[in-house]
Design brief:
- An 8-stranded parallel β-barrel has the order 1-2-3-4-5-6-7-8. A two-stranded antiparallel ribbon has the order 9-10.
- The protein is α/β, with parallel strands linked by helices and 208 residues long.
- α1 packs parallel to α7 and α6 packs parallel to α7.
- The chain is built from 7 helices and 10 strands.
- The chain has one domain: Alpha-Beta Barrel (TIM Barrel), CATH 3.20.20.
- The chain binds the ligand O=C(O)c1ccccc1NCC(=O)[C@H](O)[C@H](O)COP(=O)(O)O.
- The site of the ligand O=C(O)c1ccccc1NCC(=O)[C@H](O)[C@H](O)COP(=O)(O)O has 27 residues, from β2, β6 and β8.
- The ligand O=C(O)c1ccccc1NCC(=O)[C@H](O)[C@H](O)COP(=O)(O)O binds next to β2, β6 and β8.
């Protein structure tokens, strides 16, 4: 069975990013929409990313942001991937020449496969609990008995933590899990113990 990948999202501090790297996390998300409580300045994110060891993906997250801002962030940060969390169209998402993930607002989307079909160029999808127009990173989960029916890679997000990620993986077998609130002491401030526990819980499912 494939190893389930891990993405930590909403990184704002270098010490958290470095610990995530040591723990073997596959991807780190940096939130560049000012709608977020986890907004990080692109210069600060660039510094964090440059200190990371090779082969860890950096993901730049936006939500209905101005193209000029997105281009500015890309030219400074040089992320591996983009993540769009709002009402961006497929054309919007494809316009930057980088692989991208599209967030799926599960509270509003009943047919996930049809939604995904509208984004043929997506590298993958991030299924999150919130409704259309709402920010992610709320620590809320969706109904994990819903089969998304996707034949492309997707990340499970929303309300996962060390205590429930094992159950989530067993039920859904996502390509990856994405967590923000579940490893934090407050928005954007990651907790070392919660990060360690989360990675251990995911690794335990990889040996089952
Ligand atoms: O994290 C945010 O503040 C945020 C704001 C606006 C749009 C998206 C946002 N986060 C998206 C993510 O990828 C989160 O990691 C995902 O929603 C899971 O969050 P959580 O339920 O807190 O683990």
């Amino acid at each position: 069975m494939n190893r389930v990948r891990i993405k930590f999202c909403g990184m704002t501090r270098s010490e958290d990013a470095m610990l995530a790297a040591r723990l073997g996390v596959d991807a780190l998300g940096f939130v560049f929409t000012r709608k977020s409580r986890r907004f990080v300045d692109p210069a600060a994110a660039t510094g964090m990313i440059r200190r990371l060891p090779p082969l860890i993906s950096s993901v730049a997250l936006f939500m209905d942001d101005e193209p000029a801002w997105i281009r500015q962030v890309i030219s400074m940060v040089r992320p591996s991937l983009l993540q769009f969390h709002g009402e961006e169209s497929a054309t919007d998402c494809e316009g930057y020449g980088l692989p991208f993930l599209k967030g799926v607002p599960m509270a509003s989307v009943t047919d996930v496969a049809s939604y995904a079909a509208g984004f043929a160029g997506a590298a993958g999808f991030l299924l999150d609990a919130h409704a259309r127009g709402e920010a992610g990173g709320q620590g809320v989960r969706f109904d994990w008995t819903r089969d998304p029916g996707l034949d492309r890679p997707w990340l499970l997000a929303g309300g996962i933590d060390a205590g429930n990620v094992g159950e989530a993986i067993r039920l859904l077998r996502p390509h990856a899990v994405d967590v923000s609130s579940g490893i934090e002491s407050s928005p954007g401030i990651k907790d070392a113990g919660r990060m360690r526990a989360f990675v251990s819980a995911v690794q335990a499912t990889n040996t089952q």
